[in-house]
Amino acid sequence: MKRIMAIDYGDARTGIAVSDATLTLTGDAWVVHNKRMEQVAQTISEEVVARDVSSIIIGYPKNMDGTIGVRAEKSEQLVKILRSLCDDDVEIKLWDERMTTVSAHRVLTNVGKHGKKRKKTVDAVAASLILESYLSFLRG
Known about the structure:
This protein is of the alpha/beta class. Helix content is 47%, strand content 25%. The protein has a single domain, classed as Nucleotidyltransferase, domain 5 (2-Layer Sandwich).
């Protein structure tokens, strides 16, 4: 079975999480430190091949009222770039991720991560939460 990758795109840091081979839970999660969307997309496309990923789920941070803001527009731009870099058989979807970063901060607070330690991992945790949400959706 191929894996699913979730992305929490940010201006300076992008969280990435990849499912395990059974599509049950997050296998790996890490952060890409780069401000250039094109380079982040290139890194993602390379990881898609290396990790045998069939689907990319990109966090789509709509405003709380459901409208599309600047952050969501950046996610849409990332989708366009990834579609040009990835094979046609790789599915790329936007996934509503309202409140994911807030939830990630809450998780890190609960495990005692603060300050610089939190900043280093919050995006990976957010990507993991996006992935877990999507995997739960698939399970019905």
